[in-house]
Design brief:
Elements: H1 2-31, E1 45-48, H2 51-56, H3 59-65, E2 75-77, H4 89-98, E3 106-111, E4 118-120, H5 149-154, H6 163-166, E5 169-171, E6 177-179, H7 186-206, E7 207-209, H8 211-225, E8 228-234, H9 239-248, H10 252-262, E9 267-269, H11 289-309
Parallel strand pairs: 1-2, 1-3, 3-8, 8-9
Antiparallel strand pairs: 4-7, 5-6
Helix pairs in contact: 3-11, 7-9
């Protein structure tokens, strides 16, 4: 009786494991926004940042632009959202896990926003208290396993299994999140933009600028520069969202200029040239996938021109 019970239990577990494996392998990019990031091999070149770069910087475009150069490819997008990946020691540690230690000539795009340097006012960073603790990627020991059962067990709450049928968003195996659920009417765009603005305005009262996070950016740049070249980028957003960010962190551009100058790398601020290049967002601060493709190409051109002329486009 007991033997039969164990046989049935074992068979049940085997069937469940098979179903989970099938879903992860075939639909992982549809049912979870992050899962595929933890199945890809260790990366030689990386895009780092929050949801703006996760959606707005496309590795495939960069691979084509840098194909004929002496750069270690492919590019991998290791961006998350502002909830999971503000700049700090936790994100730095995960980036180091994902980075191929043998890399010598990689390209590292660090997409920065003021919110990535914000800490919860109730958290003491110096005491090791961080708002992103216990979330992916920081709760992951294995960041390059396929299938990744650790991610499934620890982060089941991030899975939305209806996505396997809807396919409104796709997390590609190169780490780029393709968002297909875009507003088709102006009224919808206005509603989404208002909602995002309210969310960011709340953060002004909830967050404070963290000096530890700023120091962590310096640490990250120095680490990545040992494996290639880092570039700090501020992606283009609607002007009213720039105004909100200036209310939270008015010296942001000054601090970014300072830390990049100290490390002899460029700070490419696309909000300074926003009147010359038109990029379209779908909610005020996330580029839609067509503008993301255009932006990525412009970013690559800026990097190539910088390396050729050793100065940024003015």
């Amino acid at each position: 009786m007991i033997k039969e019970l164990f046989i049935k239990l074992g068979l049940f577990c085997f069937i469940c494991l098979g179903i989970v494996t099938f879903v992860l392998v075939n639909y992982g990019g549809n049912v979870d926004f992050f899962y595929e990031k933890f199945t890809a091999p260790k990366a030689k070149s990386m895009i780092i940042g929050d949801s703006r770069s996760m959606q707005g910087i496309q590795p495939g475009v960069m691979n084509k632009s840098f194909l004929d150069l002496d750069i270690e490819l492919p590019m991998f997008n290791y961006s998350f959202t502002i909830a999971q990946a503000p700049i700090g020691p936790l994100y730095n540690k995960s980036i180091e896990k994902k980075l191929d230690p043998e890399t010598k000539n990689g390209v590292f795009i660090i997409s920065v926003t003021p919110w990535m340097f914000g800490s919860d006012k109730n958290k003491n960073n110096l005491a090791g208290e961080f708002r992103e603790d216990h979330q992916p990627p920081h709760n992951m020991r294995f960041v390059s396993a396929n299938p990744n059962y650790e991610y499934f067990i620890k982060n089941l709450n991030f899975f939305h299994f209806k996505g396997a049928f809807r396919k409104s968003s796709i997390m590609h195996k190169d780490g780029w999140l393709e968002e297909n659920n875009l507003p088709k009417e102006q009224v919808v765009f206005d509603e989404w933009k208002s909602g995002q603005a309210r969310s960011l305005n709340r953060k002004i009262n909830e967050y404070k600028v963290s000096e530890l996070r700023l120091k962590s950016l310096d640490t990250l740049i120095k680490k990545l520069n040992k494996h290639g070249k880092a570039y700090v980028v501020r992606m283009p957003i609607d002007q009213d969202f720039v105004d909100i960010e200036n209310l939270f962190y008015k010296d942001f551009d000054v601090d970014m200029e300072s830390v990049t100058k100290d490390n002899n790398i460029p700070y490419i601020n696309f909000n300074n040239i926003r009147d010359r290049i038109n990029f379209k967002t779908y909610d005020g601060h996330h580029l839609d996938k067509n503008s993301g493709q255009h932006f990525t190409k412009v970013l690559c051109d800026s990097i190539l021109k910088y390396n050729k002329n050793t100065k940024l486009i003015e």
